[in-house]
Amino acid sequence: MSILLVEPLTREAFAPFGEVIETDGAAHYPINGGRCERYHALARAEAKGPGGHVIINIFKGTPYALPLKLTMVERHPFGSQAFFPLSPRPFLVVVAPDEGGRPGTPRVFLTSPGQGVNYPANLWHGVLTPLGESQDFLVVDRAGDGNNLEEFHFPEPYEIRLP
In angstroms, rounded to a whole number, what is the distance separating the alpha carbons of residues 106 and 100? Predict the structure, then answer.
């Protein structure tokens, strides 16, 4: 079984796979008479395909423990999918480049408090993976006609470990 070591989530390291959603270093300006600070355009939602439209959801995730066996990744061909935690706890982000219609070697990132991610359409990624405790997430993704889910089961699982 191949080992995947968890990396810290940074904008630079994650750029080939999507967008990190966080306020640190983001463009912002005051609104509402100076009583609110707007962090503008942290990520871009996509909704392609027939009848595609953007929806906002709450996902309630059950925690995982490490080491973790990674057996499957998925992708959504018609839309992006953003995950932002509603509590300041870390979660794992598993992504893989596309190699001829199949996922390549996955990479695993650990978020810091206040970070979320936005996967572009058609990016291979793991399932929602909170650590330690149950966790709620605000999720922005696509609804509409057509099959917007493709799963790939690895012939041999990977093991995810902290370094």
Answer: 15
- What residue type is 145 in one-letter code? D
* Alpha carbons 88 and 62: distance in angstroms, whole number: 16
Mean pLDDT of 106-115: 96
Quote the tokens at residue 47.
């909704």
pLDDT at 131: 95
For 64, which DSSP code?
B
CB 110 within 8 A of CB 92: yes
Who contacts 155 (Cβ-Cβ below 8 Å, separation ≥6)?
none
Are 50 and 156 a contacting pair, CB within 8 Å? Answer: no
Dist CA 42 CA 50 (whole Å): 26
Distance, in Å, from the CA atom of 123 to the CA atom of 108, rounded to the nearest integer, reads 14
Q: Are 56 and 140 in contact (CB under 8 A)?
A: yes
pTM for this one? 0.91
CA distances from 4 to 69, 108, 118, 151, 155 (A): 10, 7, 21, 20, 16
22 neighbors 98 (Cβ within 8 angstroms): no
